[in-house]
Amino acid sequence: MKEKIKLDLLWFTLTPENNFDFAILNSERLFYSKLFKALIRFPSFRVVFMIRLAQFLSNFSKVCSYPFFKYLSFFHHISVSYYSEIEGGLRLPHPTNIIISASRVGKMVTIGQNVTIGGNFGKRDQDGYKTPVIGAFSFLSAGCVIGGPIIIGNDVIVGANSVVVRDIVAHSIVSGNPLIKFKPKTRSRDVKNIYLDSFYMGLDESQVFTILTYE
Questions:
Q1: pTM for the whole thing?
Q2: Predicted local confidence at residue 197, as pLDDT
Q3: What architecture (CATH level 2) is domain 2-199?
Q4: Is the distance from CB of 162 to CB of 178 less than 8 angstroms?
């Protein structure tokens, strides 16, 4: 749990030059200092922290985790499946009206408001999964729907109010209902367009490797 929260906190160390402060991953003192400040200053982080607590407690007792899931549902209209595997680096900029029922959510995923991630009328893939797999560094814009036993590759942007019911390859931008735009992302160091024209937010390869291999 602690390792996941450390990656969650990385979002709040992002500099204008688009670099993360990785010292937080190795310094316990810095981690607890950042954690305390983030819990006070950032409501969106408090919601992510509550999700972490709820899922952690659900591993031991559904009864103990129930109040936390109920809090998320009542105050933020957020529903998270007990069985969704959510890796570190989750970011919810506007934490309201979100449903997360995914087989797996990768590292450093951003989920906007009014997003639904779930099954598609009980359909299963060849491995028996009914819910989506979301790749690392993906960005799910407001109002989008991700449905079915599909795989969203790493570093994918899903446009606002899009409906995705098929696999999406890595480094893609998709949008529409049904999907009408489908194109690979291109490399760019333009920080103003990091979510539109860059692989992995324009991060250096060493930073991407550090995040993806951090346990």
A1: 0.84
A2: 41
A3: 3 Solenoid (2.160)
A4: no
Residue with more model confidence, 159 or 119: 159
Residue 135 to residue 205: CA distance in whole angstroms: 17
Domain spans, the chain: 2-199
Q: How far apart are CA 197 and CA 48, in angstroms?
A: 27
- Separation between Cα atoms, residue 124 and residue 55, nearest integer Å: 24
CB 77 within 8 A of CB 97: yes
Res 190: pLDDT: 43
Q: Which residues make Cβ contacts (< 8 Å) with residue 133, sequence separation at least 6?
A: 102, 103, 104, 106, 150, 151, 152
Residue 155 pLDDT exceeds 60: yes
Label residues 86-99 b or e (16+ Cβ within 10 Å = b): bbbbbbbebbebbb
On whether the CB atoms of residues 107 and 89 are closer than 8 A, the answer is yes
Name the nearest CA neighbour of 165 among 152, 180, 147.
147
Q: What is the mean pLDDT of residues 40-67?
A: 89
What radius of gyration do the chain's Cα atoms show? 17
Token duo for residue 102: 């995914």
Cβ-contact 74, 68 below 8 angstroms: no
Please, are residues 214 and 3 in contact by the beta-carbon 8 Å criterion?
yes
Closest CA to 154 of 137, 178, 131: 137
